[in-house]
Amino acid sequence: xxxxxxxxxxxxxxxxxxxxxxxxxxxxxxxxxxxxxxxxxxxxxxxxxxxxxxxxxxxxxxxxxxxxxxxxxxxxxxxxxxxxxxxxxxxxxxxxxxxxxxxxxxxxxxxxxxxxxxxxxxxxxxxxxxxxxxxxxxxxxxxxxxxxxxxxxxxxxxxxxxxxxxxxxxxxxxxxxxxxxxxxxxxxxxxxxxxxxxxxxxxxxxxxxxxxxxxx
Length: 216
What we know:
Low-confidence stretches: none
Shape: globular
Helix content: 25-40%
Distance between the termini: 41 Å
């Protein structure tokens, strides 16, 4: 699900994922938000190829498919988006956890041992400075307010975030959105997410540029 077009080699790819339905979230605000991004002119404004994907709320899917998405698209930036019934703001997660996954997915399954990646650290942090991203969003004219979180919740949101951080923590982010219209519409959330993505991409580009300079 999502956009599947071929990515030109000259374009930097930004991969953004949302989740499918689960539990009371028959319409998942995360995917409703992500689906609107292509209409907000990110590709032209940021000079990127935008790829969006819907992720089923299944541990096994995340475990097998997330590494494949990294291999397929070789993204400059990956932003996972999920819904939280407790969130009232655009919530930027700073870290993910490897253990404690005991809640059933939509197939009634949990990962073996409640672990995301066997033998890896209990916690991984994104190298992206989420406080700067938060400030950028809150200082803008956007209708959405942003905040920082250190606990993605030990469910599929946390699980997918850790899975990608395990691949490359220098270019991964996770954003929780509220339930639609509590208080923001999908369009308002997408506009806030667009600002966040622009700031994240700028950080990744700067770090990559500095790394290249250091190699010369």
